[in-house]
Amino acid sequence: MQNTRLGDKGNAIESKSEELSSDMDRLILALTPKGFQSFGEGASHGRIVGATALAVDNAMNHLIARLIPELQQHLNSLVGNNFGPIINADLAKAITRLLRRLGPWALECPHCKGPAVLRFSHSSERTNGIFRYEHSPSKRHGASTVLGPLRIIPIQSDVTNA
Ligand SMILES: [Zn+2]
């Protein structure tokens, strides 16, 4: 099958679902004897197990990477908002949990560009509390009463290579 990417919307959707099924093919191949054989005739059992695990992880990362643009669009729509201390806290936790669940993804800290998680803490000075980008329990950047940039970035640079 030819890899055509035409401007037409119908074709774009078709090609998107073709890409999705080729990622699924990749995942399924990693779970078959045929996939194991592709890791090399006569390779040691340990090596095949390792290569299979890596192939499954890579296939899952490819599948998950497809969700990121839509998720990013939604996060962008939240920037600049303050929903009050209770929702702010829940939202920061939900975003952090979701990115952890998806795998090697984090938010880009707009101050140092490193991977961070969004934290919200109640503050006595500011009634609604503040959002921060946390790199570690002792390293946090920013202090804003509204949601700042929420750019999703891969934690390992090779995740989105395809
Ligand atoms: Zn930072």
Topology (SSEs and partners):
Blueprint: H1 9-29, H2 33-37, H3 45-65, H4 68-78, H5 85-102, E1 105-108, E2 115-121, E3 130-136, E4 139-144, E5 152-154
Antiparallel strand pairs: 1-2, 1-5, 2-3, 3-4
Helix pairs in contact: 1-3
What would you note in describing this structure?
The chain is an alpha+beta fold and 162 residues long. It is 47% helix and 17% strand. It has helices at 9-29, 33-37, 45-65, 68-78, 85-102; strands at residues 105-108, 115-121, 130-136, 139-144, 152-154. It has a five-stranded antiparallel β-sheet with strand order 4-3-2-1-5. The protein binds zinc ion (ZN). Residues 109, 111-112, 114, 116, 133, 135, 141 line the site of zinc ion (ZN). Zinc ion (ZN) binds next to strand 3.
Summarize the structure.
By secondary structure, the protein is of the alpha+beta class. It has helices at 9-29, 33-37, 45-65, 68-78, 85-102; strands at 105-108, 115-121, 130-136, 139-144, 152-154. Helices cover 47% and strands 17% of the residues.
Which structural traits does this protein have?
5 strands, disordered C terminus, 162 residues, elongated, alpha+beta, disordered N terminus
Principal-axis shape: elongated
The profile of the biggest β sheet is:
5 strands, antiparallel
Question: How many helix segments?
Answer: 5
Give the count of structural domains: 2
Provide the gyration radius in Å: 20 Å
Mean pLDDT reading:
82
List low-confidence stretches: 1-7, 157-162
- The helix/strand class is alpha+beta
Q: How many strand segments? A: 5
Give the helix proportion (percent range).
40-55%
As a percent range, the share of strand residues is 15-25%
Bound molecules: zinc ion
Task: Note the run of SSEs as H and E.
Answer: HHHHHEEEEE
Question: How far from one another are the termini?
Answer: 19 Å
Strand order of the largest sheet: 4-3-2-1-5
